[in-house]
Amino acid sequence: MAKYNVHAGHCPQGKGASGAVGFLKESVEDRIVKNEMIRLLKAEGHTAYDCTCDVATTQSGCLARIVTKCNSHSVDADGSVHLNSGRKDKKGDGDTGGVEVLIYSWDSKVYDMAVRICEEVSKELKIRNRGVKVDTSLYVLRKTKAPAFLVECCFVDDKDDYEKWDAKRCAKAIVRGMLNKDIKGGSSTSGSTSSSSGSTASGSTSASKATVTADGYWGPNTTKALQKIFGTTVDGKVSNQYECYKDQNPGLEDGWEWEDDPSGYSPLIKAIQKMVGATQDGYIGPKTIRAIQKYFGCTQDGVFSAKSPCIKKLQQWINKQ
C-alpha cells in the first residue's frame, strides 16, 4: 500500500494567510476536501498524513510549515488542495471555470496521476477540465522531497462553479484519480457540500445503502432513498412544493406535499438541484426537471411523465450508490 501527504493550502479561514473568498471560502472548503481525501485513502488501506498548517501566520510561514511536515514523512506523493480565483463571475455566464492540477515538471512521477485527477473531478462535478499545468515557481512543488501535485478544485468567485460544487464528491474524485480505481468509502457523518452556503446535503454515497424499484415513479421509497444519500431528514416526504406542478408531473406519486403558497422549501430538492447544477431554491418545476433530465441524459421536456424514463434512471443511479 502507498503513503501520501495531503494538506489544505492555506492558513485557517480568517487567520493569517487564509485563502481566496468569493461564493466559497477556500480555507473552509479545502479542509473539507482534505479531510475526506485522508479518510478515503485510509479506508482503501493506504497511509495518509495530514500536513496542513492550522496556525495563523504569514504566507511564507504557512508554506514553510507545510513543507516541513511533508518532508518529515517518506511518502509516494504529496497532494496540495486549493480552490482557484480570478473568474469574477458573479451572475453566472453558463460556463464553469473548472479544475486544474499543477505539477513541477512534465516528467514528474505524478503526471499521469494529475491527468486522472483532472478528468475525475471534471466528470464528477461537471465542470471544465483545464488540464495539467507546469509551474516551477510554487514553493510546495519545489521544496517537497516527494513528487507533488496541487489541485485547484474550482473557482471560488464563479457562480457556475459554486452551484456545482460539492467538497466531498470532489475529494472522492481526486482519490479515484490518485489510486486509478473506483473506490467505495461511503460518506462520513459531517456535511459535505459547501460550508459557505450552510447546506447539509452530501451528494456522496450513503453509508446505509438504499435499493428502490426502478419503475419510473417517484414515491416515498424513492424519496427516502434519496434523503439517505443526501443526508436530509428521512421521512419519505418532499415538502413545500407548488401545487401548480402536480398535474403536470404524473410520475410524482405519494409523499409529495403540494401547496398553493409553500411556507418553506424542500432540503432534498435543493440538494438535488446542487448536484445537477440547477438554481437551488428547493422547488421542483420545469427548469429543475430539465436539469435533472440533462444530468441523466434524458429528453429535456421539463416534466416527469408516468413511468418517466428520467425517474427510472434516477432510481437506477440510487441503486448504484
Description:
By secondary structure, this protein is α/β, with parallel strands linked by helices. The protein has helices spanning about 25-45, 60-70, 110-125, 140-145, 160-165, 165-180, 220-230, 265-275, 285-295, 310-320; strands at about 5-10, 45-50, 75-85, 100-105, 130-135, 150-155, 240, 255-260. A six-stranded mixed beta sheet has the order 2-1-3-6-4-5, with helices on both faces. It has a two-stranded parallel sheet with strand order 7-8. Helix 1 (about 25-45) links the parallel strand 1 and strand 2 (about 45-50). Helix 1 packs across helix 6 (about 165-180) and helix 3 packs antiparallel against helix 6 (about 165-180). The longest helix has 18 residues, at about 25-45. It is elongated, with a radius of gyration of 21 Å.
